[in-house]
Write a structure and sequence with these properties.
binds uridine-diphosphate-2(N-acetylglucosaminyl) butyric acid; alpha+beta; about 25% strand; single chain
């Protein structure tokens, strides 16, 4: 029932610190199961997907101690339960990583079947293909998926039919303790894939080649704990880069890996935005017009689909016609309806959206249809002269730590307010 109230029209100025990467954290937390020991995980983002992952670990029997807001000690020595409760696994699609991690350590796992979500169909056939090649059988009963390797897991040669972040990470998780060598081909190369491989290696695994399209995993018998710091969130950083550009601001974005941001930096520069790179920060400044672009979303190192709605908002005020082709998800243009309410001129035909730039966006009542669409609406509201309200902000809080405080620190007029239930509103 909470919403964001944003009065836009002011350029963002100042510095913002980026949190740890959500999509690395939701893989590394289940991976602590493989250590069977104490792990200290630093730079965990304080977001709801991390809270759900920690809750699942705790229900499975891990001992968890919060050392500070972003650092947790997780002892997975005494985990014995391999069934992730239905209600928890359905709160987060990435709970599928518990399948790979539990299967690897215990030879069995049960997790709720991840449903299609609002980005279009989200099959997990490639994850199951990897488990099956290693010797596991899977079955689905009343929405729960069970994987079981009665004879243990044995290394295999797996060629993914589709480049998938989730299947690549689950392939690594399930192979690290299998007997012999596993070769994964046609792998995703995202920074969070590399981060998971680095974490696994710090715990004693033997994973080579992460970040290329062939990953080789030599199974080990036993792993151990470690202290590990999660990489900065590429998409959170990209979101603040776009927010700075979209509002004609000047923002230093700190605690980032500029190399991970290159696909975003390149597009922003082509749009006429100044991006200066430092060792672990980038400065984004815009004084002139936004120039139109052609964008095609692709797996890393291509332009990330998770940045697509944010770039769409920026291009809605470009001087000319831009096109965005969404090549990863079937249904990622739902934010366009919201943008049209603000006066944007966008036509969507299948996987292609054409943006005829308008002079400015006007405030409107908006909703966050998913995490990145929600972040895009925040940026759109920051651009519009006047006050906009955004509903369903729970989606945004799944992936952005402290967004209200961070934006306020840059001079934005944003607050989170409770919305009275409809029945109450009509009685008032
Ligand atoms: N696919 C299959 N079969 C599979 C797996 C994937 O056909 O078994 C297809 C998907 O339908 C999609 C494409 O392959 O068309 C890529 O999907 P991928 O598996 O890479 O996506 P994912 O692992 O489920 C992660 C991120 C998403 C991000 C995508 C693409 C996490 C938890 N989620 O999802 O992030 O969009 O990779 O980069 O890592 C977000 O953070 O907002 C978000 C949605």
């Amino acid at each position: 029932m909470e919403k964001f109230v944003i009065t836009g029209g002011k350029p963002l100025h100042g510095a913002v610190t980026i949190s740890g990467a959500k999509n690395a954290a939701v893989g590394i937390l289940p991976a602590t199961i493989l250590a069977g020991d104490v792990c200290v995980i630093e730079n965990l983002p304080d977001i709801s997907d991390v809270a759900v992952s920690l809750k699942i670990l705790s229900v499975l029997g891990a001992q968890i101690k919060m050392l500070n807001r972003n650092t947790y000690e997780i002892d997975t020595t005494h985990i014995s339960c391999t069934n992730v409760p239905d209600d928890l696994s359905r709160q987060m699609r990435a709970s599928y990583y518990f399948l790979g991690a539990l299967l690897s350590r215990f030879g069995k796992a049960q997790v709720a079947m991840p449903g299609g979500c609002n980005l279009g169909p989200r099959p997990i056939d490639q994850h199951l293909k990897a488990f099956s090649a290693l010797g596991a059988e899977d079955s689905v009963d009343y929405g729960m998926i069970t994987v079981r390797a009665k004879e243990g897991l044995t290394g295999a040669h797996i060629f993914f039919d589709k480049v998938s972040v989730g299947a690549t990470m689950n392939g690594m998780l399930s192979a690290v303790m299998a007997e012999g060598q596993t070769i994964l081909e046609n792998c995703a190369k995202e920074p969070h894939v590399v981060d998971l491989a680095n974490f696994l290696n710090m715990c004693g695994a033997d994973v080579r080649g992460a970040g290329t399209d062939v990953i080789k995993v030599r199974g080990v018998r036993q792993m151990h704990g470690c202290t590990y710091s999660i990489i900065p969130d590429q998409i959170e950083a990209g979101s603040y880069m776009v927010a700075a550009a979209a509002t004609g601001g000047d923002v230093l974005i700190e605690n980032v890996t500029p190399k991970h941001l290159e696909p975003i930096t390149a597009k922003l520069r082509r749009a006429g935005v100044e991006v200066e790179e430092f060792d672990d920060s980038v400065r984004v400044r815009r004084t002139g017009d936004i120039l139109p672009l052609k964008i095609n979303t692709m797996p890393h190192p291509g332009f990330p689909t998770d940045m697509q709605p944010l770039m769409g908002v920026l291009l809605s005020v470009a001087k000319g016609t831009s096109t965005i082709t969404e090549s990863v998800w079937d249904n990622r243009f739902r934010y366009v309806d919201e943008l049209r309410k603000m006066g944007a001129n966008v036509q969507v035909d299948g996987q292609v959206a054409v943006f005829e730039g308008v002079d400015k966006l006007s405030p409107a009542p908006l909703r966050a249809s998913d995490l990145r669409a929600g972040a895009a609406m925040v940026v759109a509201a920051l651009m519009a002269d006047g006050t906009s309200e955004i509903e369903e902000i729970g989606h945004i809080e799944r992936g952005y730590e402290n967004i209200v405080e961070k934006l306020r620190g840059l001079g934005a007029d944003i607050s989170k307010v409770d919305r009275a239930p409809a029945a109450l509103e009509s009685a008032m």
